[in-house]
Each structure stands twice: as structure tokens, then as C-alpha cells.
Amino acid sequence: MTPTLVRRHRSSAAPAPRVDRCARARDWSEIQERMLVPLHEAVYERLDVGPGTRLLGLRCGTGLALLTAAARGAEVTGVDSSPERLALARRRLLPDGPRAGYAGRGGRARTAPRLLADPPGGAAGAETAGYTLVSVFEPVGCLAGDAEGLGELLAAALPGAARGAAVVLVGWGPPERCATSSVLRVAAKLADPLCGARGWRPALRDDLEEVAERAGLRPDGSGRVSCPFGYADLDSAVRGLLSTGLFDAAIAATDARQVDKELTEALHPYRRADGTVWMPNVFRYLVARVP
Predict the structure, then answer these.
(1) pLDDT computed for residue 115 by the predictor
(2) In a 10 Å sphere around its CB, with 0-12 CB exposed, 13-18 middle and 19+ buried, how is residue 122 labelled?
(3) pTM of this structure
(4) Which of the residues in the chain have pLDDT under 50?
(5) Which of 44, 92, 169, 209 is buried most, with the most CB atoms less than 10 Å from its CB?
């Protein structure tokens, strides 16, 4: 009889694996977030972000994209549901406290950045209405169902945007142009769909347009930006990729040790002679307008 290999999965009733959220947030801030800097800069250049810009950054992470916009003179508000990431964003953007003055481009005093757990609404929203740019630099289409969650976030945020304001959505480029796609397939392979896991999936061509359409936005151009992922070593690469959250479903379905092992093996083809890890990627962004 031919032996049958069975991969052990956690029961759907089993508790989710414990994750050190503070360590994940630090890894995101120190390792992974900078990978998208070319994308931030390309978008800000295209939209001429500067002193006249009022930016609302949704899923702002630990605030690097907000910091870049503020350095160009923009007034920025960031929203993220992770208290650990928001804490690091405050440390980065408001090192002297929330009431401190902020010097923008040219040394002019600017309104201090605001960092919130939810989109501003009610009285808070009225105070900050008129955002000229709403950005979501967290790539759409990575997880099954993430577009629906983004739609809810946009519905809560867009009432505070000015008519004609730009809304920027970001997604992965074609899998054949993203070396990291082959590594992220580990997440899809190990996640257990029978347990309702929201594992990674390849980006689809119209992901961004579908989100914009459901939000009632008018597409106004798009672009592609090269964002290679470069790491000092395999350990940094594993920590950086895990910090994205794209492997959480795989960890829940198996265990952290197995995910680490298979992720490390998947990264070996991208390890260079000096021990660094280098993966070329292309990201796509869509600019849409608030009617």
C-alpha cells in the first residue's frame, strides 16, 4: 500500500497562535516599511504633494509615508487599527509630544501630525474636513477579502475628503514581475482554507479598479514603480516578511516553526554571495478622484 502523507493542521477550534505584536511592529518599522519608499516618493511627486496638501493616510503603519509627506510640507493625519504600529508612528512623528510644533519644508511651522485608530468622524471629522489626498499604501489584493475591508474603511474616511481629492490605492504588480510572489506562495500553501483562513493570493489585474468602483470613485490614472525588497540576511528577510501579516493564516494552520523553515527555504534562491537577500518587485498604484 502506498503511504499517504498528511500535513497536520490546527483545529478550527484551536486558539490562534500567540504573536508578539510589539516585535512585529518593530520589525515592520525597522525592516519592511522602507521597501515601499520608492512608491511613496513616486506618488507624492506625481500628485505634487507639498504645503497645500492635507493628507489622510489609511493603514498608515508606523508612519514612514506620513513622515515623507510631512517633510514635503503636507499636513498629515494617519489612521491604523494596530495600537503597536501607532505607538511607533507617534514616536517617529511626534517625538516631543502631540502638542509640539512641527517644522515642514523650508522650516515653516506646520500643524502637528494626527494619529488615530479610526478615520476621523463626528466633531473630529468636521475639524479636519477637506483632505486633498487619501492614501492607502498597504497593498490591496494580498489576502482573500481584504478589498472588502478596505471598502468599509474608505466609506468611513471619504466624507472627510474634499471634492476632487485624490485617492491612491496600491497593489502588487503581475506575479511574473514580483520575485516575492514565489515566496508568498508559502503562505498560500500552508494556510488551511477549510478553517476559513484568509491566506495570500496573487494580485488580480482589476483589484484596484474594483475597490475604487465600489467606493464610488472616478479612476484618474495609474502607474507602476519598482520596489525591490533587499535584506541584510535571511533572518532579516524572514522577520520583515512575517511583519506584513501575510503569513498569519499559515501560522494559525500549522505553527510558527514550520512557517519559518519553509519561508527560509523559499528565500534561498534570492540570497546573494555576500549573504544579502534581493528580490525585484513591481507595485502598481491607482489614482482615483472623489466626485
Answers:
(1) 94
(2) exposed
(3) 0.86
(4) 1-15, 100-101, 107-109, 122-127, 194-197
(5) 169
Residue at grid coordinates 520596489: 227
What is the per-residue pLDDT for 188?
81
In whole angstroms, what is the distance from residue 66 CA to residue 114 CA?
10
Please state the φ and ψ torsions of residue 290, each to the nearest 5 degrees. -80, 125
Phi, psi of 70, rounded to the nearest 5 degrees: -65, -35
Residue 47 grid cell: 500628485
Nine-digit cell string for 243: 511583519
Q: What backbone phi and psi angles, to 5 degrees, belong to 283? A: -110, 150
Please state which CATH class domain 21-93+107-174+200-230+281-289 belongs to.
alpha beta
pLDDT at position 198: 57
Q: What's at 205, amino acid-wise?
A: R
Per-residue DSSP letters for 64-131?
HHHHHHHHTT-EEEEE-S-HHHHHHHHHHH-TT-TTS-EE-GGG-EEPPPEEESS---HHHHHHT--E
Q: How many H-runs (helices) and E-runs (strands) does the chain carry?
A: 11, 11
DSSP, res 143: B
